[in-house]
Each structure stands twice: as C-alpha cells, then as structure tokens.
C-alpha cells in the first residue's frame, strides 16, 4: 500500500525546512508547491495578484500530477505546502485513487510569532519574487487567513506540531514517527 506524507499548515511555520529534512531522512521524493511555482514563474510572467493565484493553482496541479505518477509507479511520496481547504479535498481524492494511506504533519504556532516571521521573510532579498506578498496584511487579516491552514485535514493520521519556538520542536521523534508510518 502506497503512503503519502504531507507537511502542511501555517505560513512561516517551517514547513519547507521540515519537509526537506524528512525527505532526506526517509529517502523519499518530496514535492513542494512553492518550488514548483518558482519553476513555472521562471517561464510565465505574472503581474497581478489574480495571475499569481492562477500560477499557484497550476503549481498545485503539477504537484498532484507528480504525486499520482509516483504513487502509480509504487513509490511513497512527501508533499509540502500551505494547502488550502479545497486542496485538501483534492489530496483526499488523490490518496483514495491510489489506494494509499496518509500521514499529515500540520505545523502551526503562535500567530504573532508567525506574523513576525512572515514579515521578515517577505522582506528578505533571498525570497523568490513570486512569493512576495502584495502589501503587508494587517495582523487580523493574516491570522484569519492562517486559521484555515492550521486545521488542514486530508484524511488519515494527523499530527499537529507547534513551531512557535523551533528549538522546542522534537524533529527526531517526528521523523521516527514518519519512518514508522512508512514501515507499517
């Protein structure tokens, strides 16, 4: 039975770093929506928020395509993004169609801490321009949009991880939990 591990949750909660760490430790392919979006953006110009959202939808479609192809070939996969509620439903369908099982790590934390990380990351020159926000949202708007991310549920087992303080996250125990899931 094929297995799908998902790393989901709030913006600036450390999803990408954790997913990369999991992928290396577990030796399974990792598909990250933001990385796919960056690759697409290198060839497709966007200038409006709406065009950026269309590119995000295309990146999610590519993520699902790659995951389905690997699952059909008999590989387990790791998927990472701040998945939207409608994307969770698509992921449920993908997992059901593959006859697989899933484990989700949902990263969340104190909203004020995540908001400060978000602002700092958005201002960073290393941040890919395709991910730069269109203006800094008010805290209330940010917190409201992240509430849906913090309750991500694509079926299967779900583990919520508080990443308010990265130094307190039990990464090795989480990796071991994922390894156990793959062996089961």
Keywords:
alpha/beta; five-stranded parallel beta sheet; 5 strands
Task: Summarize the structure in words.
- There is one protein chain.
- 53% of the residues lie in helices and 15% in strands.
- It has helices spanning 15-26, 33-41, 49-72, 85-98, 111-123, 139-150, 171-183, and strands spanning 3-9, 30-32, 77-80, 101-108, 157-162.
- 30% of the residues are buried.
Concise structural overview:
This protein has helices at 15-26, 33-41, 49-72, 85-98, 111-123, 139-150, 171-183; strands at 3-9, 30-32, 77-80, 101-108, 157-162. With 184 residues, it is of the alpha/beta class.
Radius of gyration, rounded? 16 Å
Arithmetic mean of pLDDT:
93
> What is the string of helix and strand elements?
EHEHHEHEHHEH
State the share of residues found in helices, binned by percent: 40-55%
What proportion of the residues form beta strands (DSSP E)?
Answer: 15-25%
Assembly form of the protein: single chain
Structural class by SSE content: alpha/beta
Shape: globular
Distance between the termini: 9 Å
Counting DSSP H or I runs of 4 or more residues, the number of helices is 7
What topology, given as strand order, has the largest sheet? 2-3-1-4-5
- Low-pLDDT runs of 5+ residues are none
Major pleated sheet: 5 strands, parallel
How many β-strand runs? 5
